[in-house]
Write the structure tokens for this entry.
Amino acid sequence: MRQYPGSGSRTTTTLLLLLSVLLALVAPTAQAADGDAPSVSLSKKEAGKGGEITVKGGGWRSEALLMLLICGRSTPERGVIGGTNSCANADGRAVTTDKKGAFSKKLPVAEPPEPCPCVVHVATVTGEQALVDAVFTVAGHPTAPLPPPADEGRLAVLATTRLEGESSPLTWFGAPPARQLVFTVGNLGSAPVEDPVFEIGTAHGVYAPQWEERQWRGTVAPGSKARIKLPVELSAGAHGDYQVSLRYGTKVLAEQPWGVSRPWGVTLFWVLLCLVVPAAVFRIGMAVVDKVRPRPAGLVARHAHRTRTPAAQAPPAPAALPWFTQDSAPPDIRRSAPPENRPPPTTKGQAWTRNGG
């Protein structure tokens, strides 16, 4: 095949131009997919207690479980100060996104325990955490300025964490395993931290941590440290390798592995159940079969004979043989004769009188 000078370079240039065009067409789509962050919109920006608003969202994970709350002492920039303790938890709602990551849910308006500024707080319940705060005003609810950022302090873990405690005997039978996460924190900020709210996450295998809030009652002064114990509890029957995480704010402070033994008492219970129940059913079935099966006539007559009264069961007295009299019967027959059939004993005088003496 004959190749002209410069034809190879022209072909390469053409291919590069085609590739650049294709990349230019695909790039906006990819950027749009990557930049599709979770969003929340409200039907009303302000409403009073007892009212209702519609919360809509998009860009969330498909079929994700979300939690909707009205929280006080919060802004989208600062988040919910104090955690969900600042939210009207009793009037919250849960919603599951559709396959496209969208949702729409009605939320009753309730007064949070903290003053406004307020937000509608939307966050994932399971899996990878994602949250969005939308500005909302609860009409008639008190309003107070937010504390300065320095008042939140800066907590850091100063020593390795550990899990304290032992399993109870009930854990061997499937009760929830429980421990206490013990750690020491120091306040690196210039203001005291009062009643900090931590989050404890437990993860099993490849699954994402399940976070639960734990509030510690106390104050950590600037430059000081405090030893903190927070309860950790797993679900009933949990066993295997778990990872316990500690988070304050948006920062994970520590992680601690936890190996949970299998509840062998549950296994033993099911083994015994599989042995005892079939044996009991078999015995009951045999008793029923023995009651309802037909019996032969001879067995019925024998059974009736056995149930007679003791008087009816006594054997009849043997009758005297007709060809023997009492006096002429052989001695063995006379001995076997009943007393009432024997002649009365006589003396010599009585016998002489009868013979005419």
Summary: Residues 264-292 form the longest helix (29 residues). The helical segments are 7-34, 264-292, 297-306, 310-313, 331-336, 348-354. The chain has six helices and 20 strands. The chain has a mean pLDDT of 78.
